[in-house]
Amino acid sequence: MTHTQAAGNPHSPTQARPVVLCFAGHDPSGGAGLQADIETLAAHGCHCIPVVTALTDQDSRNLYALRAVDPEWIHTQTRRLLEDFDIRAVKIGLVGSTAGMEAIRQLLDARALRDRLVVLDPVLAAGGGGAFAGTDYPDRLRELLVPRAYVTTPNQQELHALASATDEADAVAVLHARGCAHVLVTGVAGSHDSHLTNRLYTAGSVVFQGFPTQRRPGHYRGTGCSLAAAVAAGLAHRQSVSDAVRHATQWTASAIAQAQRLGHGQSHLTRIP
């Protein structure tokens, strides 16, 4: 069947756009969370199917409150989608509760997702500094979702919270030992303040791959969400991890360079021109 024929038949889905399943919270400011995922994946020629894990009270300045979605509702939303879509990759952002993590882990073990590549963005706090979860949240992420992740994308603070180690290499080794094949440590300060580097550590390798970008003044909303979603898009398009990370790093830097200050707080990335 040709693409044209398939497009004309509503009962014959096509694979023109890879489908990426995203678990994340709703940010009403539109800067991070599921909106960042949807826009990023659309910009990369993918279709996002978003599952809401948490509702938040936040603006471009900070987080004020969070309400986690009932884990049964997360399960119900997702099971329906698994019956309908051929999912190419999975991206996980803010979950909001340990019960939600358990629900997602069960879903990832289902036949429809068992061999799908998972990108985990271990979101622990809003860009303005407000914490999303309790003190046991990083430990539960490490136990429940890190072992199922193909790529994990923590910043340095998230990395050390996840692994309870002060040395970067030791912390990465903890996540590798848990079963995560690739750890992308984001936003590491380079040899001078004008650059930041994303460092990709692969299990079994003694060196990391560095992906530097220019450091820009100011504060930006949804950078981690966008980067992780762009990595998931690359994997959904069958790119290697290195190529996916390289492109995601460059693309996110461009989105930051074009950011606009739409509210009174952090600037919003321009993900879709």
**Integer tally of domains:** 1
What's the end-to-end separation, in Å? 34 Å
Q: Tell me the number of strands.
A: 11
Helix and strand content put the structural class at alpha/beta
Strand order in space, largest sheet:
3-2-1-4-5-6-7-8-9
Helix content: 25-40%
Radius of gyration (CA) equals 18 Å
Architecture, CATH level 2? 3-Layer(aba) Sandwich
What's the rounded overall pLDDT mean? 90
CATH structural class: Alpha Beta
Keywords:
disordered N terminus, 273 residues, 24% strand, 9 helices, globular, alpha/beta, UDP-N-acetylmuramoyl-L-alanine:D-glutamate ligase, two-stranded parallel ribbon
Sum this structure up briefly.
By secondary structure, the protein is an alpha/beta fold.
Structure characterization notes:
This protein is of the alpha/beta class. It has one domain: UDP-N-acetylmuramoyl-L-alanine:D-glutamate ligase, CATH 3.40.1190. The protein is built from nine helices and eleven strands. The chain has helices at 3-8, 33-43, 71-82, 98-108, 137-144, 156-163, 168-177, 223-236, 241-257; strands at residues 19-26, 47-58, 63-68, 87-92, 117-120, 151-152, 182-189, 195-202, 208-214, 220-221, 267-268. The strands form two sheets. It has a nine-stranded mixed β-sheet with strand order 3-2-1-4-5-6-7-8-9, with helices on both faces. Strands 10-11 form a two-stranded parallel sheet. The longest helix is centred in the last third of the chain and has 17 residues, at 241-257. The two termini are 34 Å apart. The model is unreliable at 1-8 (pLDDT under 50).
